[in-house]
């Protein structure tokens, strides 16, 4: 079901963005544009987000600044196979030098 008719954003898409870490209507807007035109869907988006497990919101609820709260790192260590694939795609130093010359 559509939540944002201006951009054709569904409730499922909002939930996917929320599962990926968006926990405010503004973050949903950054990810999907939902709520950035007429704005009539913002309350609905807020309702979908609810009062879930948002680290920044939890910090606010504790009276802490969300900007100084340590956020979980989203960086992941690549698997050895991914490292090998990246190395295979990178040009060899001699080939890179020929391209630059
Ligand atoms: S319905 Fe979402 S911005 Fe208009």
Q: Which terms would index this structure?
A:
101 residues, 2 strands, 6 helices, extended, binds FE2/S2 (inorganic) cluster, two-stranded antiparallel sheet, Arc Repressor Mutant, subunit A, mainly alpha
Question: Which helices and strands occur, and which strands form pairs?
Answer:
Layout: E1 2-4, E2 9-10, H1 11-19, H2 25-32, H3 42-49, H4 55-61, H5 80-89, H6 93-100
Antiparallel strand pairs: 1-2
FE2/S2 (inorganic) cluster binds near residues 4, 6, 38, 39 and 40.
Family: Belongs to the Bfd family.
Keywords: 2Fe-2S, Electron transport, Iron, Iron-sulfur, Metal-binding, Transport
Pfam family, one: Fer2_BFD
Structure description:
This is Bacterioferritin-associated ferredoxin. Keywords: 2Fe-2S, Electron transport, Iron, Iron-sulfur, Metal-binding, Transport. Pfam families: Fer2_BFD. Belongs to the Bfd family. InterPro entries: BFD-associated_ferredoxin (IPR052371), BFD-like_2Fe2S-bd_dom (IPR007419), BFD-like_2Fe2S-bd_dom_sf (IPR041854). This protein has 101 residues and is mostly helical. It has a domain of 65 residues: Arc Repressor Mutant, subunit A, CATH 1.10.10.1100. Helices cover 50% and strands 5% of the residues. It is built from six helices and two strands, in the order ββαααααα. It has a two-stranded antiparallel ribbon. The model has no long low-confidence stretch (mean pLDDT 78). FE2/S2 (inorganic) cluster binds next to loops.
């Amino acid at each position: 079901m559509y939540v944002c008719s201006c951009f054709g954003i569904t409730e499922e898409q909002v939930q996917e963005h929320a599962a990926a870490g968006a926990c405010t209507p503004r973050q949903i807007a950054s990810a999907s544009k939902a709520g950035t035109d007429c704005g009539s869907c913002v309350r609905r988006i807020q309702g979908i987000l609810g009062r879930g497990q948002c680290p920044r919101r939890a910090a606010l609820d504790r009276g802490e600044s969300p900007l100084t709260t340590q956020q979980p790192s989203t960086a992941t260590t690549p698997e050895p196979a991914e490292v090998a694939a990246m190395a295979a795609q990178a040009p060899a130093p001699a080939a890179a030098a020929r391209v630059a010359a």
